[in-house]
Amino acid sequence: MPATDLPLLLDAAAAAGDIAMRYFKSDPQVWDKAGDQGPVTEADLAVNDMLTARLRSAQPDYGWLSEETPDDTARLTTHRQFVIDPIDGTRAFINHSLDWAHALAVVEDGRVTAGVVTLPARGLTFAATLGGGATLNGKPLHVTQVTDLAAANVLTTKPNLAPHFWLGGAVPPFSKGFRSSLAYRLCLVAQGKFDAMLTLRPSWEWDIAAGSLIVSEAQGTATDRWGAPLVFNNPYPQVDGVLAAGAVHGALRAALV
């Protein structure tokens, strides 16, 4: 990985925050995406335009995958790719919640090598490089060492608690929390604020690429719902759910069907 990738992502994420905060709580124009893919705002598009120009000009040989850019197969022929969510948690952004994020990653041969997740409204910047550890505002991150699933605090949503997902139809009695942004949920696990996060539905790569590296570099484990390694830059850019945790990862995976 070129040594410039993490500084490049950090600078771009800071610029994204500057743009987004100009729209935040100012009721930007909102459109509904086709295919029931949720809302998009003029802030999402402005951030995406800036990131496209800044990142692609800095590394023109990298492929490009962004939630707000039509996908094409050209990225599949590249060695490295930018994987970007201009605003993760657009509904939170629209509703004036603080829990939206910019998620920026570089992927090489299917693995994330650099990742940044920023929450401008909260003043938080999570960052990681492969083999280099994970930080929050420059300070090292570590996942929790909780191993008892009943004592765990897990970020998830109600559909994931349907009995048919769990062995014997019994949902473990862990504590439950929620945040709008998948990227932020992953970072909260890396930070040790929660013991795990779980989503069992197919997940877009741009939502999880940066955060998954931040978890793993905080000594945690981030896999798909079956416990398999996450692989990025797929022809169809989704993975089969995400399970990210500290020491409780094995127990949580073992409780799932």
UniProtKB/TrEMBL annotation:
SUPFAM superfamilies xrefs: Carbohydrate phosphatase
Range of residues in the leader sequence: none
InterPro entries (UniProt xref): Inositol_monoP_metal-BS (IPR020583), Inositol_monophosphatase-like (IPR000760)
Cofactor: Mg(2+)
Binding site for Mg(2+): E67, D85, I87, D88, D207
CDD domains documented for this protein: CysQ
UniProt keyword list: Hydrolase, Magnesium, Metal-binding
GO BP terms in the entry: inositol metabolic process; signal transduction
Record's keyword annotation contains Hydrolase: yes
UniProt-listed PROSITE patterns: IMP_1
Magnesium listed as a keyword: yes
An annotated Gene Ontology molecular function: inositol monophosphate 1-phosphatase activity
Family: Belongs to the inositol monophosphatase superfamily.
PANTHER family linked to this entry: INOSITOL MONOPHOSPHATASE, INOSITOL-1-MONOPHOSPHATASE-RELATED
Protein's name according to its UniProt entry: Myo-inositol-1(Or 4)-monophosphatase
Lineage, broadest ranks: Bacteria, Pseudomonadati, Pseudomonadota, Alphaproteobacteria, Rhodobacterales
